[in-house]
Automatic annotation (TrEMBL):
<protein>
    <submittedName>
        <fullName>F-box protein At3g07870-like</fullName>
    </submittedName>
</protein>
<dbReference type="InterPro" id="IPR017451">
    <property type="entry name" value="F-box-assoc_interact_dom"/>
</dbReference>
<dbReference type="InterPro" id="IPR001810">
    <property type="entry name" value="F-box_dom"/>
</dbReference>
<dbReference type="InterPro" id="IPR013187">
    <property type="entry name" value="F-box-assoc_dom_typ3"/>
</dbReference>
<dbReference type="InterPro" id="IPR036047">
    <property type="entry name" value="F-box-like_dom_sf"/>
</dbReference>
<dbReference type="InterPro" id="IPR050796">
    <property type="entry name" value="SCF_F-box_component"/>
</dbReference>
<feature type="domain" description="F-box">
    <location>
        <begin position="14"/>
        <end position="64"/>
    </location>
</feature>
<dbReference type="InterPro" id="IPR015915">
    <property type="entry name" value="Kelch-typ_b-propeller"/>
</dbReference>
<dbReference type="Pfam" id="PF12937">
    <property type="entry name" value="F-box-like"/>
</dbReference>
<dbReference type="Pfam" id="PF08268">
    <property type="entry name" value="FBA_3"/>
</dbReference>
Length: 315
């Protein structure tokens, strides 16, 4: 019986990894859990470079979204306010602290949104795009117009041109500067829209739109479009869904939600489920309903997928 022969090589394992075809390496890395992906940058220089490649970021995010959802959470507790935590449900791991503090930023950072694994963060000094696992970040060009509390910020991806954009919507009040301390929300009547394409040196002013939007959690990205709930006004008591197409940079009002959903008569906010636009509706603290728009932009396609009771057992 012939004995097995082992080929002896003096090549380090890292060098052998670098000789693998890039397509194979991308397929391997895109299937790793996030924690393992972060550690794999130590294998060799080629892998470290690939982990920063936008193509790998996109492939890994698609793989995770389909098979291995993960969450990044921000603490609102006073003792650890602003701290980010990561949890990966694939290995039932405990919460892991993410040390994410861009250079020149302040201690109190707030998470604006995430997109394809990248985080948009802000503080009193500026706006930052961060990769929480490579620890790389960039500071966006300064934008000085109105205080940040008089508007909102959003971060999204244009799949057509493979570019990221940040949207700054500023509420333009009808008052003089000397009256600023006495302004309340009811005096805000218009929104001024500014857009920054990541990599560009300056913001672009898209002009005014005649509506204001609800709070930050009601913003979602579906199919290259950002979505908000508008604030009710004297013409309509129900909130409306307004979308912004990152390709054309145009706003559009969605067709009214059907009354059968009950969304116009209860508190709700927008979410994404399996790539579809959804609304999570609360009914008098009695139940939570998840409504899904099965066919994008079609009013009649809203259906109720889930009903979740709020009952909690007591001892």
């Amino acid at each position: 019986m012939e004995k097995s022969k082992f080929v002896k090589t003096d090549q380090p394992a890292a060098n052998m990894m670098e000789r693998l075809p890039q397509e194979i390496i991308l397929r391997i890395l895109s299937r790793l859990p996030i924690t393992s992906l972060a550690q794999s940058k130590l294998v060799c220089r080629a892998w470290r470079s690939l982990i920063q490649d936008p193509l790998l970021v996109s492939q890994h995010f698609s793989q995770m979204a389909d098979n291995d959802p993960s969450f990044i959470l921000q603490s609102l507790w006073r003792a650890s306010c602003g701290q980010l935590y990561f949890t990966d449900f694939s290995d039932r791991s405990e919460l892991k602290v993410i040390s994410m503090k861009p250079d020149n930023s302040s201690m109190l950072m707030s998470l604006v949104n995430s997109c394809n694994g990248l985080l948009c963060m802000r503080d009193s000094r500026g706006i930052y795009i961060c990769n929480p696992f490579t620890r790389l970040s960039i500071e966006l060009p300064k934008f000085i117009k109105y205080p940040p509390e008089l508007g909102l910020l959003e971060f999204g991806f244009n799949p057509t041109k493979k570019e990221y954009k940040v949207i700054q919507i500023l509420y333009r009040p009808k008052f003089e500067e000397r009256d600023r301390p006495y302004v309340n929300e009811s005096t805000l009547v218009q929104s001024e829209v500014h857009v920054l394409t990541i990599g560009s040196p300056s913001w672009r002013n898209l002009g005014m739109i005649p509506c204001c939007f609800l709070w930050q959690p009601s913003q979602v990205l579906v199919g290259g479009r950002l979505h908000w709930l508008s604030k009710p006004n004297k013409y309509t008591r129900a909130s409306r869904i307004i979308s912004f197409d990152l390709r054309t940079e145009k706003f559009q009002e969605f067709p009214p939600k059907p009354d059968c959903c009950g969304l116009n008569r209860c508190f709700h906010h927008l979410v994404v489920l399996r790539g579809c636009l959804c609304a999570a509706a609360y009914h008098d603290n009695d139940k939570l309903e998840i409504w899904v728009m099965k066919e994008y932009g079609v009013k009649e396609s809203w259906i109720k997928e889930f009903t979740i009771g709020t009952y909690l057992p007591t001892t």
